[in-house]
């Protein structure tokens, strides 16, 4: 399985993340084609080969349709390079219709929390990574999108299921941070029109790029942020920006500041790290394949303004299983009606919980009880916490994140004497290690043919690919 290592010695933002993936060899044509599936036509993309401190790499930009192009070019301070080389095909592209890049190298998602009257008064801290030590945020509020609207936009799009899931999860992290800062529910966090488009493209584009790299395992170096101040609706704030700090804190990521007098880590960059990076530390035991550089807009004072991305293969012990992070919710109950628990399980599963389990437990004062466990995506954890507290007698819920290792799954149809039956296969390192007939498919055939369910199940297993045996 491939590993993507992000060397964030000079920070990270959404546009630098995408630039690094393109520099690693992600096909720009396929990347732009996948972004078209988002269904937005408010921007077009610029991809070019440039240099920062004599380091050549890929600069990725998103230009909004209503921006003045000449001003936009000056705002970025682009200095087009004529250098070709390995990635010369990205020297300069302009595509209309789909893309997402910040009009400033690290402009964060300009957001405000929507109040009861639909208007907001607090901008989020998507800061311009391409400017100086202090940044101004004076945007008219205009017509923007709430997090709920952005989530619906992504859900309705023609993007792949994996990209949808990951993009929404990243956006959820930003919305959670902004909601906590401003005291609003995440659903009501309102993204300014400009910031919303930039953020959507950055976040969705990053997920698309990872999928085009075959969803590698992501690791990162220690998070390094600059020093200085930002000007926003909160007033004059020191770096790290409030949203960046909240996003990293929610994941429990360590951060170190350096002498660079600029913002290095944006909220979008922080959210991408929090969602995808499995660990933070130096490279260990990686067989290097390719190195790419995603460029920022500004020339830093103490270090090249680049994100170095390394595509590698891990050691022989690494398997090709899928990895993700989910949230486990637990509470102990000794005074809840069993019928209430059945109802809660049905509601939770209908609302998207991954699993609901009730385990017998011995509780205090020798009372028999139940350990209620709900497994869910982190983005839905608060939703299910509230469901537990409403539908049971619990006074509290324990919450923690866990990593999962999952077999790569494939759905096939096998022929049996009773008819076709769907079977789920699980593969590890290319070999089938699990074969499981789908219950509903077996049940339907058993009812139609009036034969025992067990007979259909066994027939499906006999005709399915047989799990590999260990030598």
Tally of DSSP β-strands: 23
Shape from CA axes? globular
Widest sheet: strand order? 14-9-1-16-15
Rg calc: 25 Å
Low-confidence stretches: 68-142
Helix content estimate: 25-40%
Count of helical regions? 12
Overall SS class: alpha+beta
Major sheet summary line: 5 strands, mixed
Query: Please, what is the average pLDDT?
Result: 82
Proportion of beta-strand residues: 25-35%
- What distance lies between the first and last C-alpha atoms, to the nearest angstrom? 22 Å
Give an overview of the whole structure:
- There is one protein chain.
- By secondary structure, this protein is α+β, with helices and mostly antiparallel strands.
- The chain contains 12 helices and 23 strands.
- The protein has helices spanning 14-24, 28-36, 69-76, 147-156, 161-182, 193-212, 242-251, 267-276, 338-350, 381-391, 439-449, 453-463, and strands at residues 2-7, 43-52, 55-64, 92-96, 111-114, 120-123, 145-146, 189-191, 217-220, 223-225, 229-232, 235-238, 255-257, 277-280, 287-295, 306-313, 322-333, 355-362, 368-376, 398-406, 408-416, 419-428, 431-437.
- A 5-stranded mixed beta sheet has the order 14-9-1-16-15.
- Strand 21 (408-416) and strand 22 (419-428) form a beta hairpin.
- The longest helix has 22 residues, at 161-182.
- The two termini are 22 Å apart.
């Amino acid at each position: 399985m491939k590993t993507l290592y992000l060397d964030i010695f000079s920070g990270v933002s959404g546009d630098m993340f995408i630039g690094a993936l393109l520099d690693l060899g992600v096909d720009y044509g396929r990347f732009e084609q996948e972004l078209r599936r988002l269904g937005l036509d408010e921007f077009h993309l610029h991809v070019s080969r440039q240099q920062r401190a004599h380091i050549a790499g890929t600069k990725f930009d998103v230009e909004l349709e209503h921006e003045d192009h000449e001003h936009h070019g000056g705002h970025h301070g682009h200095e087009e390079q004529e250098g070709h080389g390995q990635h010369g095909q990205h020297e300069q592209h302009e595509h209309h219709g789909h893309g997402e890049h910040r009009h400033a190298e690290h402009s964060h998602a300009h957001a405000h929390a929507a109040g009861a009257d639909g208007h907001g008064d607090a901008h989020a801290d998507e800061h311009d990574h391409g400017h100086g030590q202090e940044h101004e945020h004076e945007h008219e509020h205009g017509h923007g999108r709430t997090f709920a609207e952005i989530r619906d936009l992504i859900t309705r799009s023609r993007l792949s299921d994996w990209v949808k899931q990951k993009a929404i999860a990243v956006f959820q992290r930003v919305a959670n941070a902004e909601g906590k800062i401003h005291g609003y529910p995440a659903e009501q966090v309102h993204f300014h029109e400009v910031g919303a488009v930039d953020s959507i493209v950055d976040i969705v584009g990053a997920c698309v790029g990872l999928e085009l790299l075959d969803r590698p395992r992501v690791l990162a170096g220690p998070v390094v942020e600059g020093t200085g101040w930002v000007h926003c609706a909160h007033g004059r704030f020191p770096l790290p920006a409030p949203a960046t700090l909240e996003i990293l804190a929610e994941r429990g990521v360590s951060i170190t500041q350096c002498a660079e007098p600029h913002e290095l880590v944006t909220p979008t960059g922080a959210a991408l790290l929090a969602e995808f990076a499995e660990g933070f530390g130096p490279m260990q035991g990686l067989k290097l394949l390719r190195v790419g550089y995603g460029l920022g807009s500004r020339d830093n004072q103490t270090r090249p303004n680049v994100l170095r991305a390394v595509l590698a293969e891990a050691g022989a012990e690494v398997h090709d299983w899928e990895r993700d992070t989910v949230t486990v919710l637990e509470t102990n109950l000794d005074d809840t009606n069993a019928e209430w628990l059945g109802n809660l399980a049905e509601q939770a599963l209908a609302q998207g919980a991954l699993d609901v389990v009730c385990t017998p437990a011995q509780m205090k004062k020798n009372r028999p009880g139940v350990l209620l466990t709900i497994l869910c995506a982190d983005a839905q954890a608060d939703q299910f916490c509230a469901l537990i507290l409403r539908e049971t007698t619990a006074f509290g819920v324990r919450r923690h994140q866990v990593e999962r290792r999952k077999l790569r799954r494939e759905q096939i149809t096998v022929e049996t004497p009773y008819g076709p039956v769907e079977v789920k296969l699980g593969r590890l390192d290319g070999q089938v290690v699990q074969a499981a007939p789908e219950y509903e498919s077996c049940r339907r055939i058993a009812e139609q043919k009036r034969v025992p369910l067990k007979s259909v199940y066994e027939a499906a297993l006999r005709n399915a690919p047989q799990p590999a045996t260990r030598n």
